[in-house]
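Study this fold:
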Amino acid sequence: MAGHSKWANIKHRKGAQDKKRAKQFTRAIKEITVAVKEGGGPDPEANPGLRNAIQNAKGVNMPKDTIERAIKKASGADADNYETVTFEGYGPNGIAIFVECTTDNTNRTVASVRSIFSKNGGSLGTNGSLEFLFDKKGVFVIEKEKIEMDLEEFELELIEGGASKFEKEDDYLTVYTDFTDFGSISSKLEELNIEPKNSEVQRIPLNTLELPVDDAIKILNLVEKFEDDDDVQNVYHNLEITDELIEEMEKEQA
């Protein structure tokens, strides 16, 4: 997973400075809306899902007043009605792709996701066909500069809370936990007064497939097309992210 983690963090750093910032804001507002409507109202103290959504909004540098407006709108009578839908399919070379969407128009979303698959050498499968290839994990990205205690001591504290794995990449520490321990780690970080850059439940591939760089770049470009769709919240895949692939993609983005 080290390659996946490193690539995600590279995208995270670059994302706030490029055209994707608006999409990140849209995603964060949808997450806030769903958290308010499904998670127990507009008070973050009483709604853990909303606390998490607010953290993620801050992680993409969303202004405080924008966050407050999103919460207020989500709790009003004219709030948008979103539902969460998932899609499973294969890209070229048998790469599994799992797409999570939050939408107010399921027919539009189905048509869009199917079109992206078919126009890029992939195929949409039936729901449930790929779930066995991924494991749901809690993933927390923490900026090392925010950790004031000894790093090893900090990791031991999180292990007590249920952390199962750590990855260190440049300025970030990525913490993994079982899906069932997500709330426990969130509470532990609050207790330690640490606000993560990002915290979410992700679908982690149990096994990855390595492709030649040219073929792998086509997969990442396909993933990016999904991510550019307004209804898409997250995209997961089982492509092996090698150092060579990261170098090549960084050249393209330079």
Notes: The chain has a mean pLDDT of 89.
